[in-house]
Amino acid sequence: MQVDQILKDFWEDNDRFADFFNTVFFGGENVIAPEELETLSPEVSAAEETKEGLEGQTKYRDKVKRWKGVKLAVLGIENQDRILYAMPERTLLYEALQYEAQRKEAASRHRKQKDLRGSEYLSGFARTDRLSPVLTAVIYYGEEPWDGPTSLGEMVDLPEEMKASFQDYQMHLFQVLGNDGRDFKNEDIRTVLRNADALRKGKISRLDEKIDAELVKYVAAFVNSERVMKLAGKRKRKEGVPMCTALEELIKERENCGKAEGRAEGKAESVLELLEELGEVPKCVQERIMGERDLETLRRWHKEAAHAGSVREFLERMEKQG
């Protein structure tokens, strides 16, 4: 199941996207209208010319839209099904690249128009130019409460003397865990969050008796359960899917397979995902990680992988711990 793509598809809908931002950032007021949104390319990059040539970096955001309201704004969603302990720094980078793209666009426009002089010419940015604000929401779908930092300050070893001068960055985190969707107006969001919450808590009585077949895959993605997707897929009907039966079978499967086994496998996969961002992971290391079933060990490795600067550094820490 391509969970990441399913989540991107869910938030592509302008009605859902607008209601999410209105609820989370504007207290439920209808500040953003769906028709004022347009999807932007998820690619953000920055490149500078150096002696060695053109150097830069390209990042891909999960979902980005431009709000063409009273003022232009760039709104982004980052989907996380695992705790990423460097997420504030990553989100800050995404937003900085988004601002840099706007600045370069302005500079390019001025070069073509040849309308700048003096200091404005040197900066490629006129005194009256303004950037569009960038607002990012990190949506966390994990089964365990987020225990990572939500600000840059929490990631920095900050001396007491610098605290008053340090410019902090606050990450906007929305946790799916424990949220039943009642604060939202959009019925799709309410339905998906309500049923996802009931599934996580094993509350059969709280599930909708039937749910639109199209929304089932989103419920499955919100709880990251391929089993729910398959079970519901077997029972697709015009009038909807009986979620209670799917949940009952899911509980039986979990009892047979062992819930701890599944959690250990998921945690091992998340360790590998973090390491693969750092470089190639030797096959023997992959097998050792995937074969580990002790959750405490896997949690320790997960934190080490999140803070390591390279695969080699992670391996050294792993061997020291035994």
Q: Please, could you describe this protein's structure?
A:
By secondary structure, the chain is α/β, with parallel strands linked by helices. Helices cover 48% and strands 14% of the residues. It has helices at residues 3-12, 14-25, 87-113, 118-123, 187-201, 213-222, 226-233, 243-257, 259-276, 283-291, 295-307, 311-321; strands spanning 37-39, 43-50, 53-60, 63-68, 72-80, 134-140, 172-175. Helix 11 (295-307) runs antiparallel to helix 12. The protein is globular and about 65 Å long.
Write the layout of secondary structure elements.
Layout: H1 3-12, H2 14-25, E1 37-39, E2 43-50, E3 53-60, E4 63-68, E5 72-80, H3 87-113, H4 118-123, E6 134-140, E7 172-175, H5 187-201, H6 213-222, H7 226-233, H8 243-257, H9 259-276, H10 283-291, H11 295-307, H12 311-321
Parallel strand pairs: 5-6, 6-7
Antiparallel strand pairs: 1-4, 2-3, 4-5
Helix pairs in contact: 1-6, 5-6, 6-7, 7-8, 9-10, 9-11, 11-12
Which properties best describe this structure?
322 residues; alpha/beta; two-stranded antiparallel sheet; 12 helices; globular
In brief, what are we looking at here?
With 322 residues, the chain is of the alpha/beta class. 48% of the residues lie in helices and 14% in strands.
